């Protein structure tokens, strides 16, 4: 027994540490309305299913015992009455479901009102990662990052979503329903997290080979922590502190990395891939595909096509010493 518990421990611990991803565990008002709607539909359709099953069983049992001839006019009248009652009941149930849905959508609409303290974040879908830009009227206060959305608890957030290539769909089940990201068109949706937590979002519209590996993390944190994170992210990248990191930066700047990636504070200004200024502060690599650890980062740089076939990042032939220097530099980008 003890051994079994010990064997299960890593599974249980992993379950605790994993980010939340469930529409039935709402962490904000939008998700709560949707969860209530889901439970209402489950209750209504559950009753319909039980009643239907009851009549089906009754008909089965009664059919066996039946002795009256089938063309009895009384029986035909009874059948007709049954059909009329069933039709009325169906219309009433469908109308009930439609009204429940209508009021839920209205409630969601009422939450989409511009509040002065609201935060505006632009989310752009790419095959297969998320570009995240915090919009601010002061240009030096706007911020671009990738695959990790930090939001302050209790503050409404306006997400302005669009796509760079094909249609994607942003879905953070604990916070809201799905919202399509359409190329050339910007639509908006509101979220608000009422409890501190890490919520996993996932692309919910098939968008090509690596659709399944297009995830993002939403980190809802207290206002002070969010403000600290924000000002740290606004800073340019750290200047390499030692000779190995300097060597790593040289390798990065000389390699094709700069064609696609930007590191603020260095000449690297590529915009095709995720911005890397504070890469080491993020929890995952490649849009939620790998945990952000040294070994995984090494594997990703050397052979990204093995990890996420079809993605836009090419493989890199680096000498072991070059790789170690590059890893050391990238890990210093906190
Ligand atoms: Cu992006 Cu599916």
Number of helices: 9
**3D shape:** elongated
Q: From the helix content, strand content and strand pairing, which structural class follows? A: alpha+beta
Rg over CA atoms: 27 Å
- Give the rounded overall mean pLDDT: 91
> What share of the residues does DSSP label as strand, in percent?
15-25%
For the biggest sheet, the summary is: 5 strands, mixed
Q: Distance between the terminal alpha carbons, to the nearest Å?
A: 44 Å
Spans with pLDDT under 50 lasting ≥5 residues?
Answer: 11-16
The hetero compounds bound to this protein are: dinuclear copper ion
Helix content: 40-55%
Number of strand segments = 12
Order of strands, widest sheet = 3-2-1-5-8
């Amino acid at each position: 027994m003890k051994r079994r518990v010990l064997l299960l421990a890593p599974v249980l611990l992993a379950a605790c540490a994993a980010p939340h991803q469930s529409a039935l565990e709402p962490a904000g008002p939008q998700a709560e309305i949707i969860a209530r709607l889901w439970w209402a539909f489950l209750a209504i359709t559950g009753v319909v299913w039980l009643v239907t099953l009851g009549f089906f069983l009754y008909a089965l049992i009664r059919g066996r015992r039946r002795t009256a001839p089938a063309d009895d006019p009384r029986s035909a009248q009874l059948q007709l009455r049954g059909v009329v009652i069933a039709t009325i009941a169906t219309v009433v149930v469908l109308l009930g479901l439609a009204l429940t849905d209508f009021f839920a959508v209205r409630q969601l609409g009422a939450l989409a009102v511009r509040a002065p303290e609201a935060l505006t974040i632009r989310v752009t879908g790419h095959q297969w990662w998320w570009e995240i830009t915090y919009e601010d009227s002061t240009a030096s206060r706007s911020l671009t990052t990738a695959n990790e959305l930090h939001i302050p608890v209790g503050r409404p957030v306006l997400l302005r979503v669009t796509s760079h290539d094909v249609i994607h769909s942003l879905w953070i089940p604990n916070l809201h329903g799905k919202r399509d990201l359409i190329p050339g068109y910007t639509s908006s949706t509101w979220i608000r997290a009422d409890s501190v937590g890490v919520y996993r979002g996932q692309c919910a519209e098939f968008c090509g080979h690596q659709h399944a590996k297009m995830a993002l993390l939403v980190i809802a944190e207290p206002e002070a922590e969010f403000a600290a994170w924000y000002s740290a992210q606004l800073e340019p990248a750290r200047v390499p502190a030692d000779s190995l990191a300097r060597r790593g930066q040289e390798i990065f700047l000389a390699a094709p990395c700069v064609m696609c990636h930007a590191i603020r504070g260095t000449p690297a200004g590529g915009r095709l891939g995720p911005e890397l200024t504070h890469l080491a502060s993020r929890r995952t690599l490649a849009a939620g595909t790998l945990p952000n650890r040294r070994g995984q980062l090494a594997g990703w740089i050397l052979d990204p096509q093995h990890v996420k076939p079809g993605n836009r990042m090419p493989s890199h032939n680096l000498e072991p010493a070059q790789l170690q220097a590059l890893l050391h530099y990238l890990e210093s980008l906190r």
